[in-house]
STAS domain-containing protein
Amino acid sequence: MSCRRPVGLPHVDATTPAVLSLSGPVARDEVPELCHAVRTLLETTPTGVVVCDVGGLGPPGLAAVDLLARLQLTARRAGGRIRLRDPDPALHALLHLVGLRFECEGQTEEREPALGVQEAVETGDPPV
């Protein structure tokens, strides 16, 4: 009986980030474990992004803001970043209120339009 290895490189999915699900109110003593989990996930994924599923996190409050700020700091120190999945609109508003900007899944990026793209102007339109 013989076993041949497949020819070529093994299949690696470099486009799918790792996911960390956060559920329930997170106690303060759980934060270091979650930071370690983010660091470990960033070491094992080639994308440099960890998606934090915050849909089950519970009602938004300063404890959730503190947790997400610490996770983002940990990710940045490890050379990556986190992206939020399914954030509550109130949590999203609270994060903006305290000055923390997080990338969210399904959210379009705000950036300059591509070069060479111009808006069409109708001849009868008044100037803005």
In short: The mean pLDDT is 82. The CA atoms of residues 23 and 57 lie 4 Å apart. The first strand starts at residue 18 and ends at 23.
